[in-house]
Design goal:
By secondary structure, the protein is an alpha+beta fold. The protein has helices spanning 55-67, 124-130, 134-143; strands at 14-25, 28-35, 42-43, 46-48, 69-73, 79-86, 92-107, 119-123. Strands 1, 2, 3, 4, 5, 6, 7 and 8 form an 8-stranded mixed sheet that branches. A hairpin with a 6-residue loop joins strand 2 (28-35) and strand 3. Helix 2 (124-130) runs antiparallel to helix 3. The chain is globular. It starts with 13 loop residues before the first strand and ends in a 7-residue tail after the last helix.
Length: 150
């Protein structure tokens, strides 16, 4: 899959996109979290921007590949978070990630990265408490106040 990884912000941050997979369970929003491949930290599906796809479409593609879910992706980002990504040569690359809510309609039993990741539905507070990026934790907590379209 072609990626346009050369897109950088003015401060040399790599731009990425992420999906925030959610569903309603007993009237409460739940978030689907996944583990990262290397460090096994709890994260949301994210990756580079993709040539030929809008940012929301790329975020939805990451959700399918990394978490095995499909659904309705919001066309508007709910915000961004930043993190430092370790590189194979031992360096660190700063990334800024735009987050797009994805209402999960289909959860697959098998998906491309199933053997590399764990996934778990969580309350917003639990998910926010498990992520290491403070800005992402705030986005997750604030997501509870976002209206649900009926």
């Amino acid at each position: 899959m072609a990626r346009s990884g050369s897109k950088r912000t003015a401060r040399s941050e790599t731009r990425q996109v992420a999906a925030l997979p959610w569903r309603l369970e007993n009237g409460q929003r739940r978030i689907l979290m996944i583990t990262s491949r290397e460090t096994r930290r709890w994260v949301i599906p994210k990756g580079g921007r993709m040539v030929g796809k809008t940012d929301p479409e790329a975020a939805a593609q990451e959700a399918m590949e990394e978490a095995g879910v499909k659904g309705d992706i919001d066309s508007q980002s709910i915000g961004v978070f930043r993190y430092a990504k370790g590189t194979k040569d031992g360096g660190v690359r700063q990334c800024v990630v735009s987050v797009y809510p994805l209402e999960v309609l289909i959860q697959m039993g098998a998906w491309p990265e199933a053997h590399q990741r764990e996934r778990r539905w969580m309350s917003l507070n639990e998910a926010a408490s498990l992520v290491q990026e403070p800005d992402l934790a705030t986005l997750i907590r604030d997501f509870d106040a976002t209206p649900v379209d009926d």
